[in-house]
Amino acid sequence: MTSTRQLLKTCALGAIAMALAGCSVFAKTILAPQPDITKFYLLTPTAGAAPTQSVGGDFAIGLGPIKLPPYLDRPEVVTRAAPNRLELSKSERWGESLQNGFTSVMARDLAAQAGTRRVIIFPWYNTIQIDLQVQIDVYRFETDGNGNAQLSAKWTILDSAGKNILYTAESNLTQPSKPGDATDAAAALSRAVGDLSGQIANMIHQLRSQQGAHPA
Question: N or C end of the chain, less CB within 10 A?
Fold first, then answer.
């Protein structure tokens, strides 16, 4: 009887020891530092640097305000999974505010495409002389489930005082990218910003040409 009780006691102690060892291994696995899989992305200009020599005079473009929809005011990369559903990435982030990135890239693309070294980002001092002002309201700026980068925006060109509308239009632009590839998606979104900048720059050239033909 004594030996049986001793055997049971030994088995019980062994089971407890094994359970504690298992818990220790499990705890170490859970509490161990996990690798950071977060990746960060940036928009980049596609039109090259601003020209060293301006075209048709060093005129000044006032850029802004630029408004992005509130659902993009977050660090996570957003994908439109369905017309009425958005998905936020768990591991992919913008390296800077998307508002700041969009504005900065637009300014550099517009400078290169419009042919001026003077693109002044809103807000600016009253003492700064602006020749034309460009306002942009972005409705959509993300990729869809098929990898297509979508940029929809209304843009307006105003006179130097920012009071009279010289031209306004809506643009709906698409650039392809590889589905599920955030690096390619960031590049496609950058190209879409470049395309929008190109449309605005072309209209600026036309307006300036008209102004030159009909000087005040």
Answer: C
